[in-house]
Amino acid sequence: MSAGPAVAGSVATPARQRAITFGWSRPRLRLVASPGRHAPRVPFVLLVIALLGGGLLGLLLLNTQRAQGAFTLSDLQRHNTTLQDQVQALRLQVQQDRTPAALASRAAALGMVPGTAPLFLDASGKVLGTVPDGTPVPDAHSPHVGNIVVAGTAQRAATKPASHPATSTAAAGTPATASPSSGTTTAATGTSASGTDAPATSTGTSGHPVPPPVAATTPAPNGATP
Amino acid sequence: MTRRPRRRLARHGPRLRAGALFIALALTALGLRLVWLQGVSASSYATRAEDQRLRTTTISAVRGQILDRNGNVLAQNVDARAIYVDQTEVSDPAREAQVLAPLIGVPAQTLQPQLTGTKRFVYLARNVTPAQGRAVTAASLGGIGVLPESHRSYPGGDLAANVVGFTNIDGKGLAGIESSFNTLLQGTAGTETVEVDPSGREIPGGYHKETKARPGGTVQLTLDQDIQYEAQRAIAAQVAATRAKSGTVIVLDSKTGQILADATAPSFNAAEPGKADPANTGNRTISDYYEPGSVNKMIVAAAALQTGALTPNSVLDIPSALHIADATFHDAEAHGDEKLTLTGILAKSSNIGAIEIAQRLGNATVDHYLKLFGLGAKTGIALPGETAGVLPDVNTWKPTQAATIPFGQGMDVSALQMVAAYGAVANGGVYVAPRIVQSSAGPDGVSKPATTSRRVMSTQNAALLRLMLEQVTTENGTAPAAQIPGYRIAGKTGTANAIGPDGRYDGHYTASFIGMAPADNPRLVVEVVLDHPQTSYYGGTVAAPVFKDVMSFALQSLGIPPSKGSPSALPLTG
Predict the structure, then answer these.
(1) Which among A8, B417, B425, B459 is least surrounded, fewest beta carbons within 10 Å?
(2) Can you state the angle between helices B130-138 and B93-104, rounded to 10 degrees?
C-alpha cells in the first residue's frame, strides 16, 4: 500500500514540471514570432498591385491591339471589295469589247472591211482558192489585203524571203497601196513538207480585216505546225 | 386551464382551413399550369423561343455561266446593287434628288417624286454597279439605302439570245438553255442560322450554323460566237431586205453533229426580255415547223439511189402536167414534155419528177426514208420546246398527199430536222443527231451528251448524191447564187407554199436553201430559211445569197481549205 502514495507522488512530479516548463518557454515564442509577421506584407501587397496593374495594362494593350486589328481588317476588307469590284468591272468591259458585234463596229470605224476568201498553199506550192479580180480598196488608208493560209507544214519561213512564188502570187491580188508589212505573208510552204497535203494546218495571215475570228497568228519562224 | 387554447383553436379553425384550402387550390392551379407549360405544350413554346432567338437567312447560290465552244461568255452573273429609299426618313427630297441623280444616272425630276411620300421601301434603281452603290453610301443621304443583289448579264446582247434564253427577276430560267439547264445552272442555296438579341444583333459566341451555298454549274455550248454573229447579221439583213416575216440560219458541223450557229431574226436583247415581242424570244429553228418544199426531194433521191431503183443518170419522162386523183401538178417553170435524169430532177427541182420517183418507190419506202433521215421525230436537242414536225401516218396518205410529200408539201419539218438530214449526206451517209451542248459541268462532274448516229445510206451513194446536188449550184441549176469561189458547193433549194394562220395556203412562200461545203469532203452544212419573203420567193434567189455569206465566213473562220479540182458535170437531161 506504501507504494500507492509513492506512485501517486511520482506521478504528480512530472505534471508539476510540465507546468513549470510551459510557464518558462512562453515569452521566448512571442519574441521570435513578431518580426516574422511584419516583414513580408509590403512586398506581397506590392506584388499583388503589380500583378493587377500589369494585368490591367496588358488587357488594355491587348484590347487596343485588337481594336487596331479590327480597324485594319475592315480597311483591308473594304479595299479588297473595291478591288474585286474593279476586277469585275474590268472583266465585264473586256467581255463586252470582245463580243463580235463590238469588234466588228470598232474594226469598221478603223476603215477595215471583211476579208475575202483566203488563199491556201498546199505542200507542193500549189495555190488553192482564187483571188477575186479587182479586189476592192475601200480607202487609201486602209489597204485591203488578200489573206493567205498555208495548208501543209510551214517551215523555214524566216529564211524564205518574199521572192517565194506563192507569196508573189498572193501579191498579185494585193493592191499597190498595201504596205509590205500588211501585204505579205510570212509563211511559206515548207521544203520539208514531204508530200503531206493535209488541209488547213495553220493560218498565217497578216492584216486580216474584220470580223476577227480567223486566228491571225503568224507561224513562228522555224516552228513546225502540227 | 386547457380549455382556453382549445376554445381559441376552435374559433380560428374555419379560417385556417379556408386558408389551407385556398393555398392548396392555388398550388394545384400552379402545378397544373406548370404541367401544361412544361409537359403538354412545351415543344411549341420552346420552338417559339427559339424562333425569337434564332434568325435564319438564305445564302443565294451564284448562277452558273453559259459559254460558247471557245469559252467566250454568253451569260453570267455579276454583283450588282439596288438603291432604295425609306421615304419617311427623307427630309429634303429636292436636295437629295439633286445629289443622287448623277450617282445612279436617273434624272432628278424622276427621282424627286419617288423620294416624296410615306412609303417605307421604294426601289430607286436596280442592277447598278457596286462602285455606284459605294458612291451612294458615301453620300450618306437620309433614308437612302443600298442592297447587294446578283444580276444576270449577257455581254453579247442579242448574240445567241434565242439559244441562251433568259431568266426572270428571281434568276429562274424561262427560255432556251437557261430553262432546259435551270437546275444545273441555279446551284443550291445555303442557309445561315445565328442567335440574335431582341434588337436583331448577332450574339457573339452564340449559336451559329452555316450551310454553304453551292454555286451553279457551267454549260458550254457548241456555238462559235463569231459564226453565230455573222449568221445573225446576215439573216437579219436579208429579213429586212426581203421584208420577210422571219428567217433562220443553222450552221452544222456535219462530222460531229455540233451546231456552230443557230440564228433567227427578228431576235431580241437578252438583257431586256420584258421589252421583247414574245414571238421573237423563242427559237424558231427548233419550235417552228413549216412545209419544207423541194429540199425534201433530196430524201426521195437518196431513197431511189439506196434502193437501187435509179442511178444518177436514169432518165425519166417529165410531162408538162400530171393528173393525180382530182389534182393537177405542174413544175415551178412551165415546160413541155421533157426527159430529165435523176440528177436533172434535183438540179431543176422538178415536182413532177419527184412524184414519178416516189411512184416507183412506193409510199412505204418514201415514208421509211423520211423517218430514217429524222423527219417526224424530235432530234432530242437539249433545248426546250422542240417540235417533232408533222409527218402524216403513211397508211392515211391520200393519193394527192402521196404526190405532194415527195416534194415537201403536206408535211411539216423543223429547220433543225432538215439540216440534220442534209448532215447525213454530208457525213458519208451517217446521220448524227444534232447537238448544241458540248458539256455541262455541275457538282457531279463534267458530263458530255452522248453522240447518237445511224447509217442511212452507203458512203458511195452519199458521195453520188452530193455530186448530184452540186449540179444545183451550177448555172443550169436553181441556185447559182450559192457558189463560193474555190469551193465545191452541194445543196438544194426549197420554195414551198406556206400555210397561213387559218390552216390554208395563203399565197405566201417559205424560201430555203440547204448546202454543204466543200462538197468533195464536207465539213459544214448551212441552212437558210426565210418565211414569207416579199421581194422574191425563190429559195435560190433570197436564201442562197445568205448561205453564201454565212458559209464563206464559216469556211474562212475555221480555216477550211478550198476544194481541189472541179466537180464532174452530170447530165441533166436525157
Answers:
(1) A8
(2) 150
